[in-house]
Write a sequence for this structure.
């Protein structure tokens, strides 16, 4: 069953009427509803198109958090064959918020890292809502080291509100773990691609997103802090999250204009949560193009490309 966001109410009402007509027709075969259903469906499609053409930053935030939006596990199943996730950081424990391992993309061996938020109450608790602890980032470093040793491209899928801020995580060196993961992203001699599929929150996202190429889904967000938390700090009122989201410049279009990301993967009208197959095909095409583009790069060229890209950001971004 489709879950509708608050601003999608006009579409929800039209779809509700369509379902009522279909229920009526199922009990009375003499009633012809095809024409009316077609008319209502056309209105619903038009309303959805109109809504998604002018989403505000806060509405995009809601789309990025939609419960039916595909998560890392969906991308891994659709795009990676023979995926073998590894567990544990060999220092403390396993962290299910970050899934990392090896598989094949269209037959090419790759390393894969992704933040998994979970899609049910049970899985969200298991994956800690995608908020990784130090052991999660150390597991990512472990996989990146192996990818570098065996000359395997790295694919990262970013989807987190941020790193876990609990006392235990801080005691175990959360900041140090994030810094080392970020440093490893910069240091590897193999090409790496990061795709922000939902939320890209603060250092928790950057830790696996410092890549030769960074892409964002059209309705994903990328920010130093999620809007509600930012509003609570700056305005002392989480209810001002919509204003905060607008001020932060967190949308894919904003990030591309600022030079933070390298491209946008367009989402079908209605968002990725309505069109899983289409967004998988679009992401697959981008990954394939990336691997082709970097196929003949030497290890030093890969490092230079990545280093130059991020150094340029310090001179190209104008303070707001």
């Amino acid at each position: 069953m489709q879950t509708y966001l608050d601003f999608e109410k006009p579409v929800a009402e039209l779809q509700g009427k369509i379902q009522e007509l279909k229920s009526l027709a199922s009990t009375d075969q003499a009633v012809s509803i095809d024409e009316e259903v077609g008319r209502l469906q056309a209105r619903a499609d038009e309303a959805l198109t109109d809504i998604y053409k002018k989403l505000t930053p806060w509405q995009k935030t809601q789309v990025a958090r939609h419960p039916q939006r595909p998560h890392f596990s969906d991308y891994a199943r659709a795009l990676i064959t023979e995926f073998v996730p590894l567990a544990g950081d060999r220092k403390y424990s396993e962290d299910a918020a970050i899934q990392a391992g090896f598989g094949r993309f269209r037959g090419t061996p790759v390393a894969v890292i992704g933040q998994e938020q979970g899609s049910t109450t049970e899985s969200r608790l298991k994956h800690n809502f995608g908020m990784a602890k130090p052991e999660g980032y150390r597991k990512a470093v472990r996989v990146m080291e192996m990818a570098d040793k065996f000359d395997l491209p790295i694919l990262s899928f970013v989807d987190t509100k941020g790193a876990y801020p609990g006392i235990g995580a801080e005691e175990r060196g959360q900041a140090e773990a994030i810094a080392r993961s970020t440093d490893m992203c910069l240091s590897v001699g193999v090409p790496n691609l990061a795709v922000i599929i939902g939320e890209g929150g603060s250092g928790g996202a950057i830790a696996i997103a410092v890549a030769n190429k960074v892409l964002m889904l059209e309705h994903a967000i990328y920010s130093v802090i999620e809007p509600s938390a930012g509003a609570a700090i700056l305005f002392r009122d989480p209810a001002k999250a919509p204003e905060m989201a607008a001020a932060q410049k967190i949308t894919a279009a904003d990030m591309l204009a600022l030079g933070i990301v390298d491209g946008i993967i367009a989402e079908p009208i209605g968002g990725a949560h309505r069109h899983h197959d289409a967004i998988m095909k679009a992401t697959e095409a981008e990954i394939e193009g990336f691997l082709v583009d970097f196929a003949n790069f030497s290890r030093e060229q890969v490092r230079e490309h990545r280093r130059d890209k991020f150094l340029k950001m310090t001179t190209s971004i104008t303070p707001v």
